[in-house]
Design brief:
acyltransferase activity, 463 residues, 4-stranded antiparallel beta sheet, lipoyl, 22% strand, single chain, EC 2.3.1.-
Amino acid sequence: ANVCLWRLHGCLLDLKKIYLSATGAAPVKVEMPALSPTMEEGNIVKWLKKEGDAVAAGDALCEIETDKAVVTLESSDDGVLAKILMEEGSRAVRLGTLIALMVEEGEDWKTVEIPPPVAATQATPAPAAPTAPPPHPPRAASTGPLRLSPAARHILDTHGLDPQLATPTGHRGIITKEDALNLLKKFPDSKTTPVTAAPVAAAPSPVSTPAAAPLPPGSRPMYPPQSIPGKPGAPGTFTEVPASNVRRVIAQRLTQSKTTIPHAYATIDCDLGAVMQLRKEMAKAEIKVSVNDFIIKAAAATLRELPEVNVTWSGEGPQALDSISISIAVATPKGLITPIITNAADKGVQEISANAKALAQKARNGKLLPHEYQGGSFSISNLGMFGISEFSAVINPPQACILAVGTSRAVLHLTEETGALSTQQLMTVTLSSDGRLVDDELASRFLDKFRANLERPQRMTLN
């Protein structure tokens, strides 16, 4: 009986091999995952496995650049990496896009079935669009000279499209890059159609070309200077620089912040004399901490005293946070990253200093983990080391506030009791607050308590 079972098992394996050799191995799909809450697309930085390599669950497959950092994608299955569909350097890969295929162990990875691209099936109805309308729709009524952005002009000139056919949506009637791309979608075959074809359709009415008329003195030109990419040194040229995921997300979030959050600003000067003296005493004991570490501690201590500032804004209203975490702005080659010092109110200046240094290093290396840059209600941006006296920062949604810190400066101060002059080390800080969460009175109280904590650091826990 056992012999019969073994023979039956062998026959089944042979049939499976014959079937797979004829139809191809069934693939296990590897798709672009969401590696951070705000991630919408990613870049393939490097493949750590090559086609034909055996893969175990938990093995690193590739490195993916998210909107925050470079994260390693681990395999969730055992098998063999059969086909890499998105090569190294692939940019702006949307979530859910198929990036690779795996097969089960023992299957021939070279015969893996590659599914048809989803984008191609979705894009099939697109070519039918140009056949429905006439080859050239009637020209839109022009109320003045055409004005194009450099990118729009380049697209229209390259594909031989008449600017009169575009619908301007930019400020003051400027035809933007998006307007040019929308026109290109209507006429995908227009690259073979020269721009001189437009005047033929409009030949019966040669008078309707106001763009050729001279402009009145003092008016702006019809077009910005023509750009010719790839020729540096020529007037009006430019070179397009590809934006990283981090840069794109920063742009989106800054725009979201400035257009949806009612920013309010309040500024105050703080005397750093006590902090400077305490730093000297700590340095004698070989304890090295920065002024910024004291600023972080003072902000955390103030949030503990005023928990109504430790809130974030959700779609339905304020949300009070149970813990106090502070985001610190770190400049990296790819953009500004804000790692978070968690439970900052419960930590001493030394521990805050160690955390800040470690997080800054990980941010610059693109190795931050998701929990190291998510959460918190408060951010600190310090440009004092660059000699900036004062500035206003943009709130990082959904947080309530961000504190902009300037450099310290020596100021002569007249002592009221003795009438003598003394030197103070003053530092200007500006609080940007979300008016929906923190009103002007609460912001003023926060800055007053923050100054008190910073000017008397003994009030804070320094362990």
